[in-house]
Structure formats: C-alpha cells, structure tokens
Amino acid sequence: MSKLFKISVLFIFLITLQLEAQYQKRAHFNAKFEPDSQVIHCVGQSDELAFASYTEIMTPSRHPKLYMDYTGAKNSSEEMIHEVANYYEIIKNYPPDVGLQIGLSMTNGGEAYTDDIIEGIHDSGLVTFAKELDNLNREIFVRIGYEANGFWNGYNPGSYKTAFQHVSEILRAYSNHIAIVWCVHPVDDITTIMSYYPGEDFVDWWSIDIFESFYFNSSSTHDFLDEAELHGFPVLIGEATPMESHVGDGQADWDAWFEGFFDLIKNEPVIKGFSYINREWTYIGGQPSWGNTRIQDDSVIACNYRQVMDNGLFLHANAGVSNNILTVAAAEDTYVMSEFPNKTFGNNDTMIVKNSATDTIISYVKFDLSELQLGEISLVRAYFLAKNNTDSDVPVHIHMAENNWNEDSLNWNNKV
Prior knowledge:
The chain is 32% helix and 17% strand. It contains eleven helices and 14 strands. The chain has an eight-stranded parallel barrel with strand order 1-2-3-6-7-8-9-10, surrounded by five helices. A three-stranded antiparallel beta sheet has the order 12-14-13, with no helix packed on it. Strands 4-5 form a two-stranded antiparallel ribbon. It is globular.
C-alpha cells in the first residue's frame, strides 16, 4: 500500500509541473493591485448561497481572491451605503484579503444617463460609494460603465468617455483602495472599441467580458489584448460564463467552453485576472436561456476546474488565514405528504413544501452538530436553494422539530 501511495503522489506532482509549464509567463505593468506573475481568481454575480457553494467546493486552498457584484452610478448615498454593506456581509466571513470587483453601470435598461453624470447630478452618491468602499480596507476593482461598446447599453462614445473620466476622478479622490477598470465587449472591431477609451490617465486596468466560446479566438478579442499590451495595461476578464454550453454534461461541457477559456488565459500573458459568473440563470431570471453555470452542480466540471486552479499561476485568497468557518451538510433530509400518509421519501434528491386544499407537504432537515460546543458558535446560517413552480410569491416557514426521526421511516402518520 505504501509503495502505491508514493507512486500516486509522484504522478500528481509531475502532472502539476506539466500544467505550470504550459502557461505563458505573465507580463507585468506595475498597475495598481497587479500581481507580479499570477492571475487573480474572482467569482460572482451570484447571491451569498452561490458564492458560499463555490468557495466550499474550491476548498480553502483555492478560495477566490475577489467577489464580483454590481451597482448603478445613479444610486443615492443611502442606496450606496446599503450596497456596500451587502458586499461586506458576503465577504466578511472569509479571509481578510478577499477583495471586490464591482461593475458600476451608467445605463439603465439601455438608456444611458452619462449626461447626468457629467453634470454632477449623481456626485453625492458616487462620493459616498467611494468612501464606503475605502472603509472596507480591501483591494477593490471598479469597472466603470462596463461593456462600454455594447449596443445593449446605449452609450455614446463621447459622453461615455467624459462620464467615465468624471467618475474616475471622484473614486480616486475619495479612496486609495480602488483600481479603475475600463471594460469592453468583443462584439465590435478594435477601431470601434477604442473609440470608447477614456484615456491613460483615467484607468488602471483594461477588461473584456467573454461569454460565447466564439470570442476565445476572435480577432476582436486578440486585437484588444494586443492593444492593452501596447498601451501598458494588464487585462482582467471582467465577466465570463458558458452561456451556450452550461454545466451538467460533464466532459462535453468542459471541452465545449472551459477548455477554450483557460487556453485563452494560458496563451495570453497580458491577462492578469478573470471573473467567473457562477449562477443558475434558470432559477434567478434575467437570462433564463443561459441555463446553469454553477460548477458545483457538475462533478466532472468541478474536478477539472479545481485541477486548473491548483496551478501556481492563479492567485487565491490567503489560505493560511482561518476564520473558523465550518460548513455542515445535512445529515438527513426527507419530506412527508398528507396525500400518501404511509409513504417515505428519504431517498429523493429534492425536498418539497406545499399547502393546498388537496395535499400538504412538509420537509425535514437534520444536521449533526455533535462536534461543536455551544460556546463556540457565534453565527449560524442555513442555505436552501428553492424553485417556485408558481407565478406568485410563496411564504415558507421554518420551525425547529424534534430530532427523534430518520429519513428512512418518517411519514405523514408518524411525523414529529
């Protein structure tokens, strides 16, 4: 047994060295928060549950360095305070070097309000936004008017550039913890893209958002990367998600999107960060045709993804910092149905709740906390991913139950 174990370890070590050798050495531009020779690992556009699920499957050694979220430049001071507080609620229980990557929109439903920004109408909220971010004392990347050239945003190149410059000056004046990012989409040629460029003096990083695998090898993508190197800026892939392949089909999905995505990073030394959108679009809405992109829902994708993240090229949060967070999965779960009072459902993959004239369904979840001492617990959160099969809001109530039941025998007649 010991010989087999040693051979296995040697094999893994050799594979790791081979993977590291495949990646191009990174360029370095001395940009704000730019790592010397690594690529920043970021994930987001997801709620607290999705972020927690992603970080759990990554394990502490591969914890994302940045959490990604969004807000609007026209928000009031009160709204900005609330937004930043929400960001902090998500990252506060993780290593203290976990930062933020924020998309700051200057449009609403395709109606750009850049003229209002230029006139200073939203200065108060922007100043508050900068101050609140500065108080977090984290590394924060702000993509002002992300996907600048995207026709869906409705930006005019001239007013966009002026508004960008105005916002950039405000953020820099009130925070030392913000890197300013200019972000585009490869839907246009490089000439059109560059017509939105606000200028060297107003940016710290360049960024590109990529969803379709077509853009991994498109001329617009590679022309943009070449232009970034020419101007002397590192590139952050601001948003990336497999919109056409999703997850769920294992290696086929990996080959269809993920392989090409990481090949792009591997072969382009100017890329110094990426942000993966780990989201179930079907449940959350917004882009339901995009499907599920949560890597934790596909064991093959998750395994391959972790192997890539093990490469020393990628910069993760400080794995040596412990916040004493323990994730406890359900030990048992089941549900009972009034319509079938003697039937058990402990082997089902999902749980159901229902209250109608014909049937009532109650779900049960049990956690084993025997390893914890009561004095050690400061905060407990329970996460449930729910799918609503109706068009209206459905209230769901959670109550404490006795623990003298098991999922193999609990039914409606003997429920506790």
